[in-house]
Amino acid sequence: MAESQILSVIRVWAAIAWADGVLAESEADGLRRLIRGADLTPDERAAATQLLDARVELPDVYLAELNPESRRGIYRAACRMAVVDHVFAHAERKMLDSLQKVLGIPIEIAKEIEADIPGMGP
């Protein structure tokens, strides 16, 4: 069974957070907030929580298989999750910037997506 888009977003976000080999406390806090606020099944929540315990790497094919619409959907979901707790932390901004680059979304498109998300701000 394919994982939900929300869990995919958390997995991508965790991989970005772990990219330097260390999960900084601010990154872990951002991920915990995302997991707490996300609409996940108990199994998905358990899987998401495990992403905090060990380095997460995405196989190269993971993003290569996504079409542009799916990439934008993942970015949009990540933006929504970043503000779900009504706190848009600096660590979340940094992760969104990294996610935008990893997904290959042009900055203009990323700004349009963010403009449509209440709470993202300018």
Number of domains: 1
Round the Cα radius of gyration to an integer and report it: 13 Å
- Going by helix content, strand content and strand pairing, the class is mainly alpha
Shape: globular
Provide the β-strand percentage band.
Answer: under 5%
Q: Roughly how many Å apart are the termini?
A: 38 Å
Oligomeric category: single chain
> Quick one: how many beta strands?
0
Unreliable spans are: none
Let me know the largest β-sheet: none
What's the number of helices? 7
Please characterize this protein's 3D structure.
This protein has 122 residues and is mainly α. It has one domain. The protein contains seven helices and no strands. It has helices at 5-17, 25-37, 42-50, 60-64, 68-82, 90-102, 107-115. α1 (5-17) runs antiparallel to α2 and α5 (68-82) runs antiparallel to α6. The longest helix has 15 residues, at 68-82. The protein is globular, with a radius of gyration of 13 Å. It starts with a helix and ends in a 7-residue tail after the last helix. The model has no long low-confidence stretch (mean pLDDT 84).
